[in-house]
Amino acid sequence: MKERILMIGSNGQIGSELATALRRRFGTENVITSDIREPTVLKEDEIFEIINVLDKPALTDLFEKYKPTQLYLLAAMLSATGEKYPQKAWDLNINGLLNVLDLAVELDVKKVFWPSSIAVFGPHSPKQNTDQYCVMDPVSIYGVTKLAGERLCEYYHHKYKLDIRSVRFPGIISWKTAPGGGTTDYAVDIFIEALKYGRYTCFLSANTALPMLYMEDAVRGTMELMDAPVEQISIRSSYNLAGLSFTPSEIGKEIKKILPNFEMSYVDDDPRQAIADTWPASIDDAYARRDWGWKPKFDLESITEDMIANLKTNV
Ligand code: AKB
């Protein structure tokens, strides 16, 4: 069957790189990207539409116009911005998802991808090797929407047989498009400022370990999950997905190996620390490994080398 992909929220950190990979795989003419505003770069043959995922009539028109076989919903408000606008975060993250789930069922979309996050865990979840199934008591509104979203995905799968697939992304590190409004954003900011100014003031404390993933792994993992035979998908809420875990102090030391003059300092009153303190330090992704063969490739050393090599020419 010929695939036709519709991506909503394609201008963000994950969308911009996932769209490139999907265009390479399915052909530029079969990938429609969309967002609330124009992307900064759009090649002549790329198809892009302005859409607000909360505008159901416009969204319906978009689905009817392109009749997608696969849908990627990446429009979301992340954890730090969500704390500033909790109502908007709920509206976008939950009502946007509901609009897409309803239309996917109504218009018979074959597969849907929606990312969840490690933010679904909370202060009573285990900190180390956090299991797929454990206490989940998110305290950020972002985490609350992601956990509610997971339950909706599983519900739509059971009730309407919707083939929805999801992973709980950790912090994503990438050099092409910066993240925005997240608690894990420091792990990208640090490279940009190290190259620009030779120093970085981190908003998380030196020993705050968090799970992270390199973009190349995140894109490959998403495509592997979407490619997996349906009978191999045992989880319809969202799969735990691990790459690596490190602290600000550890990544700082790794950067110093390549940029010996790099200096790091810390602020101790940033509200993002309170969110990070409730998140896991490391994730157990045994189900993703077992069900669809997930295996990350990048470690801290290879990420640091790749980030600096690529950003050197851009910063
Ligand atoms: C955030 O920090 O909010 C995101 C996430 C872990 O989902 N990067």
Description:
The structure is a single chain. With 315 residues, the chain is of the alpha/beta class. The chain has 2 domains: 5-170 and 214-240, NAD(P)-binding Rossmann-like Domain (Rossmann fold, 3-Layer(aba) Sandwich), CATH 3.40.50; 173-211 and 243-313, UDP-galactose 4-epimerase, domain 1 (Alpha-Beta Complex), CATH 3.90.25. It is 43% helix and 15% strand. The chain contains 11 helices and 14 strands. It has helices at 13-26, 56-66, 79-84, 86-106, 141-160, 186-197, 215-227, 248-258, 271-276, 286-292, 300-312; strands spanning 5-8, 31-35, 47-50, 70-73, 111-113, 116-117, 164-165, 167-169, 171-173, 199-202, 210-214, 239-240, 244-246, 263-266. Helix 2 packs parallel to helix 4 (86-106) and helix 8 (248-258) packs across helix 11 (300-312). The longest helix has 21 residues, at 86-106. The protein is globular, with a radius of gyration of 19 Å. 2-amino-3-ketobutyric acid binds next to loops.
How many strands appear in the DSSP assignment?
14
Classify the secondary structure makeup into a structural class. alpha/beta
Biggest sheet features: 6 strands, parallel
Shape: globular
Fourth-tier CATH superfamily name of the largest domain: NAD(P)-binding Rossmann-like Domain
Order of H and E elements: EHEEHEHHEEHEEEHEEHEEHEHHH
Any idea of the CATH topology of the largest domain?
Rossmann fold
Low-confidence runs (pLDDT<50, min 5 residues)?
A: none
Family: Belongs to the NAD(P)-dependent epimerase/dehydratase family.
GO molecular function: L-threonine 3-dehydrogenase activity
Protein name: NAD-dependent epimerase/dehydratase family protein
Pfam families: Epimerase (PF01370)
